[in-house]
Amino acid sequence: MQSASFQILRPPSSPNLFTMRDFASCFSEYTVQVSDTSCSSYSKNSCMTPALIPSIQNAVTCLYRTILSTQKQFLISATWYKNNISQGLNITFSSDPSTTIKLNFNSRLFRKLKGSKSLEFDNSNIEVFWDFSTARYHTGPEPLDGYYVFLIVDSELSLILGDMGEDASIKKLKSATRMAKFSLVSRQEHISGSSLYSTKAKFCEKGVAHDILIHCSGENEGLKHSVLSVCIDKKMVIRVKRLQWNFRGNQIIFLDGLLVDLMWDVHDWFYNPAASGYAVFMFRTRSGTGSRLWLEEKLVPKDEEKDEFSLMIYAAKNV
Asked: Residue 278 has what pLDDT?
């Protein structure tokens, strides 16, 4: 999944996901129920949305890989954020803070909803164009539509964001402008609120956006023990019983023809509530069809043509 090469918005007290492999073998097979998402019968495992107010996003970081025609590569991170003071977007190249372009959308003094900026990095000329003057938002920091961001690196169109990005780039650039190869490698979401969260994710370039629902039910819903349910497209794929004892683990799901490792760590929700109380959920596609967990794939040569994507969610439960 998302490789460790990019800047992680990890809270100081976030749990260490690399301990999950050690815990996986400790769980009873009777505590986790797994469904194949390719099946069509879900009458018993249908995922009903609880009467809980879903958590909201505070920050979203997307990591993109761009490959120019010269085979030169960049990792570009786009971090959308929202807090009580400001809301905006930070764009950083290859995790180098000196390259960060900061766009603030609601500051009275520094707001600039439309514009462009140029910089040089690693012997390359970079231009960034943006327009958020008609952007629409819901509760999170990332716009729903009505905006664009696109990047030019060494005269090649290297990244397009937003529903208006393609049209805007066609109008502003020469018809002979080359298109670099770029793809989304990983996505991280920081959320806060209840123990219910929903989001969308595409696990491969040619796949569709899937609805993901994560819900931790407990005593306030009439259950003797807490239960973790993960649903994709309103179909339950994993149900973890007695979550207090099975607070860390991993399971495999099959989605869009890919093996996807699903990992969870909700230790702090139960045993460290006085601190941040963060839980961590990770979805990560495997690079092949072998049996090894993604943590064990680091020593295996990577095929750049293979689909690779990860989704990591940091969840703070306030209610």
From this structure: 84
Residues in CB range of 81: below 8 A, 6 or more apart? 58, 59, 60, 87, 88, 89, 90, 141
Q: Higher model confidence: residue 299 or residue 269? A: 269
**pLDDT tens digits, one per residue of 3-23:** 332 222 333 333 343 344 443
What is the distance between the terminal CA atoms of the chain, rounded to a whole angstrom?
30
Cα 33 to Cα 100: distance, rounded to the nearest angstrom? 44
Euclidean distance between CA atoms 279 and 259, whole angstroms: 23
Compute how many other C-beta atoms are within 10 angstroms of the C-beta atom of residue 303.
10
Which of 17-26, 81-90, 93-102, 194-203 is predicted least confidently? 17-26
Residues paired with residue 253 on neighbouring β-strands, in sequence order: 260
**What's the length of the chain?**
319
H or E element at residue 257: none
268 Rama sector, left if φ>0, alpha if ψ -120 to 50, beta otherwise:
alpha
**In a domain? residue 1:** no
Domain identity same for 174 and 207 = no
Which among 217, 251, 232 has a CA at the least distance from the CA of 47? 232
Other beta carbons within 10 Å of 125: 12
Helix ranges restricted to H, 72-199: 165-172
Could you say which of 155, 185, 215 is where a domain stops? 185
Map tokens 């509760």 to a residue: 139
What's the pLDDT tens digit per position in 235-278? Answer: 999 999 999 899 999 999 998 888 999 999 999 888 876 666 78
Confidence of residue 49 (pLDDT cuts 50, 70, 90): low
Q: Which two tokens stand for residue 225?
A: 């023990």
pTM: 0.80
Q: In what order do the strands lie in the sheet with 87-93?
A: 96-104, 87-93, 73-82, 56-67, 181-193, 310-317, 278-285, 258-265, 248-255
- Are residues 207 and 169 part of one domain? no
Cβ within 8 Å of residue 175, ≥6 positions away = none
Give the range of the structural domain holding residue 106, as residue numbers without chain letter.
60-185
